[in-house]
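Risk register update: the risk that structure generation would not scale has been downgraded. Supporting records follow, first protein first.
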Amino acid sequence: MRKMTIAALASMLAAAPAFGQSAPSGAVAPHPAKPAAAPANSATHAASAKPAATASTPESRSAAALALSHEATYDESTAQRIREAALSYGDIAVRGGWPTIPTEAKFTLGVPGPHDDLLRKRLLMSGDLAVDKASGPHDESVVESIKRFQLRHGLAATGTMTPRTLAALNISVQKRIRQLEASLERLAHVNFSFGPRYVVVNLPATYAEAVENDVVVRRYRVIVGKTEKPSPTVTAEITSVNLNPTWTVPSSIAKAEISAHMRKDPSYLSRMHMEVLGAGDAPIDPRSVDWSGTHTPNFTVRQQSGTWNALGAVKIDMPNPYSVYMHDTNQPNLFNDDYRFDSHGCSAVRGSTMCETSRPGC
């Protein structure tokens, strides 16, 4: 098996300015390209049954727009693009920064408003609007510029002035510069050797990218660690893939959570298809175990493979100092949440999960 390198990044890559209609110099969500190829079995599924329509949400529309792009958000040129963006924002700051749009401002397509030129000036200064569109009513050119701004800042690309979009537009250029500088500082501590094939988990964005020959061939939603149990920044090589794995529960989870479940419900382990093992993996009667949770467990809890397993159907080994790894999940519905910071440090990836030390329902 050919090795692949993975980097889980804790850096928040602040959106960089675009210039007119040219490519952004450091966009977080690059502008759409040709759609990715459909799965090989998609035609078979389409022929057999028509999938049920899913509700369209701003988050899903934003994700769909991002999925159309084959440009990597993290590559060898990322740091340089951020430096250039910081310099561009510096020039804007020297000129006094961009204007603030009043919170009460209203923008309706085709309807002239008192703040139309102010919005155009703001979008023009950050490079989201072409220089020949500096004035006029709220039209399609402004809508497309707003979409571009939204994509670069991780917002749903609706083209409408949502409260989150207005708040992002009104963040000062000085604060944007500080964000870019913070990103550079974080990236300076990431020791990552780019190769022809690598995987990047963008922790703040809760997305993962599989990159081959500088092109994103797959992009997935991910579930990452809670703020109190954050996913670590780690660089490692993928060495093997295990199908239908068992899950050895980390001692911290066994102490804090498994023990609590067992105190409330002694049948919990059997219902979860878990077993207690001692030295040499010898089975232990759960009734003989102290489930008070006051001591570090001197036993191992292991979940058997199957549809109930927290690791799902796949575990991908990537040896590293944190003993974290990637895996599937048995609760794919969690990927539908807008807020996906809900694990014990894992980076569960939709469709082909990349996860670290996990919990049932990761």
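Supporting record for the second protein:
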Amino acid sequence: MKKDKHLSVLQLTRQDVPDVKEDTKTRYDWIPIGIEHQDDYYEKLTEAYNTSTTNAACVDGTADLLYGKGLTTNDEEFSTQLQRLVKGEDLRKVFFDLKLYGNAAFQVKWNKEHTKIVKMSHIPVQLLRAEKITVTPQVENYYYCTDWSDMRKQKQKIKIPSFGTSNEEREILYIKEYEPSRFYYSLPDWISALQFSQVEAELSNLHINNIENGFLPLVMVNLNNGVPAPEERDTIENMIEHKFTGTKNAGRFMVSFNDDKEAAPTVESIQVENLHEKYQYVAEYAQDRILVAHRIVSPLLFGIRTANNGFSSQSEEMKTAYSIFQTMTIQPFQSLVLDALYYALIEGGYGERDLYIEQLTPLVILADTAEDTDSTIEEAQEDVDDAMINTETQDEEQMEEELLLNPSKAFSSEEYEIL
């Protein structure tokens, strides 16, 4: 009599390329933004930062360079006032949010007459949601909630008007990059490496669980009690998948209780050749893709050493890499924040002010620059800062032209007519 045989291949969880969606069709007054679920965008980015060592190093290092030595101005009389308006700690957090989340926000406090800004403080952008647009071409309000996943906390949310749209004492100055496919939020520059950050996290889970469970190999389980019905097979497969698959279950063992030896399941070890080399390749590839997404030319800038750095010497590598990174990444981020601050100070009763960030330049670069130019390290640092001074002192016609080209820069009600 021919015996039935059935071989099952368990389909593990499938991962897709992250698709970030602004959900404009909900019944809410605000716009959720999500990847796998309706409003898990900020949660996923935070998880990728907390669980990926390379990603965390890139975000932290870039945020430090963005903040540099802080915000300053050439106007000595205004300098002290500027430090009271925008504290260094708040600006550092804004740059960090902008790098990690692709969005950042200031909470602007006005005087009672709403004629002058009193203070601009950081507000966690992951706790803000944009209000749906109705008539005007910009977001008029933002909602603040300490936990958007908790329905009870959502009922306690606070509605705060957008900067330049009200006469209230508190407003939100929201900072984001323009993106043609999104209106309410923008994405971080490293979003394409989100999956590779998850890969690093899963490799970490895999290795630590293998260590804790004795590096047991992959196995095939043969059940020798006959071929059960399809429903029963599905149940058994689901139980085995739940207990033994995934990086968190790496190295777990199985205990079988049987009526006799003939009916006992057989467990065969499946040896995978060069498994350690495969893991090493995946780890190095994931790290490389994360660095590419962050546009980091040389990992040495952030204390990350890789096998191939591509330069003849570390000094040459750091100078070239820093120059490229400063021009292509740091300066655009800083300009985005400086433009917002510049506009806020004009509207806030302080007039046009030259603002710039004192740059944080590696000492080896300053030393080489000073030697090449026959100057001191302090003079070389001043030259770097002078090159980054914000000269955004455009007149009203120039601002109107820019708003026509880029409506996302509109802040106040007067600019609706321009649009």
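The CA atoms of residues 130 and 206 lie 39 Å apart. On this basis the risk owner (M.S.) recommends closing the item.
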